[in-house]
Protein: Dipeptide ABC transporter ATP-binding protein
Organism: Parasedimentitalea huanghaiensis
Amino acid sequence: MLDQPIAQIKGLRVEFQTKDGPVVGVKDVSFDINPGETVCVVGESGSGKSVSSLSLMRLVEFGGGEIAAGELMFDRREGGQIDLSNAGQDMMKEIRGDEIGMIFQEPMTALNPVFTVGRQLTEGLRVHKNMNKKQAEERALELLHQVRIPEPDRRMTQYPHELSGGMRQRVVIAMAMACEPRLLIADEPTTALDVTIQAEILALMDRLKRETGTAVMFITHDMAVVAQMADRVVVMFRGNKVEEGPVEQIFENPQHDYTKALLAAVPKLGEMTGKAYPEPMKLMGVEGQKIEPIKGTEEVILSVENLTTRFDVKGGFLRRNVAQVHAVEDVSFKLNKGQTLSLVGESGCGKSTTGRAILRLVEPQSGKVLFDDCNVLDLNQNELHKVRQDMQMIFQDPFASLNPQMVLSEQVAEPMRNYGLASGSELQDRVANLFDRVQLPRDFMRRYPHEMSGGQRQRIAIARALALNPKLIIADEAVSALDVSVQAQVLNLMMELQADLGLSFLFISHDMAVVERVSHQVGVMYLGRIVELGPRARVFENPQHAYTQSLMKAVPIADPRQRKSERDLNFKPIPSPIHGLDYKPEPSQYLEVEPGHFVLTTDSGY
């Protein structure tokens, strides 16, 4: 029977035992997955989407959960159905990897660091397919070709740490596809990847699905990825399925309030076309929202001139300098008071290093950073301490930047204590006001970071950055790890604060739709240089540099009728930023193509 679903989840309920009694991860979820179909399960952190997939693999028991009720029917390759919810672990070992493959979210934890890529790829083939060493290696090479990994022979002998994030994720996909499973479960496989690599991996998975007829259960919280991949969508909220339907129907005619709110919170590329200034997003269910454009001023607050930062590479017996990583190469830009300048680009392009070099968290080689008419790079430690009162940073991972042993009110009060700005009851009042500003209840002041969700922790990080009334905030991927609706709230919060307090933001991100929403000016970085710089509308609507154009092409659009095909994507591999000590790069030369819109004319390597 061809029309029979490969997997049927019926009335699944999963419970986790905790010291406070049982916690229900999934309440009563049912859906089918048909041959050759991609079912996207969407929802935010804690909605139960990963728990559903781990139940199908029967891995949920290893995480302290148990399947309390329901059936997990799976159609075996040899024919005949089996209920996985009560299959023995020996039977599951046969099925895992052979008939059900899984791609995990974090490729570095899914690969074994002590075995070569070749050994990990051939292991499953030798166990499940009874191949000998030579046959398994031939098949592994074929798989690496399929996932478009350059020089597969070399990769077979390398270890996971020698590959980039995108390469590792491809190896994990090759491992999951090795035995041609009937069902492939992909759990947030592109969340941590850059736009261009994400686009390639989504196109790759789609192509492999068409060629092999595998059914795919794709778990994500990114609605643009859903629009790109799904045939059918299952929306989950707090352990329940709230809506299911074909992808066009979910996007064009959502029925459930939660689905509507989820779609309203997604920033879409092209939404800001024709608008001169950024403005907050309209969110559903939020009363009394001010949606006004944020103009800012024409007064320059930060001017960066020819900033260069390099890191030494040590090697040889005596650990001498043998080469340098050219992380930031001859970067110049100006940021106006009350405005946002965004730096975009892929991992390793130097955008975070630029932000850190401006604050002197890493020491630059050369250049000038003029802030309020003083050169930050010439200051001694005492002067730098004073200037840092006006320049603050919000880091990508709030959990790593907050102290796990301090209550939240202390963490927000600490900068004010450091600078002697307030004490006693005045300090307590100011902390309470900051909690109000970032829309957190005051009873959270006694909590610790581990008692908060990711979005709430990021709000604390913003409250702490605001504590000193800074003029400039450098936000390094400040919303990239957040769920869609939380991300929208945090972005709106940052924009409201900008409008009220006249803050300037240097916004570092790889999410083009978010950048389009918040920016006045945009700088596109590639291999340590800014290749294009100008007003947001000009860079997005009239990209001139080849790299900017390919970056725009790669962004998935949250509309199932505008899907990207593999033909649209032709990216060049990024060359290495490591050069010998005698390497002298050319200075950056720019051509002004429109007023204020500059394009790099020096060879950028793209």
Observations:
- The mean pLDDT is 87.
- The domain at 286-380+472-606 is CATH 3.40.50.300 (Rossmann fold).
- The CA atoms of residues 14 and 25 lie 5 Å apart.
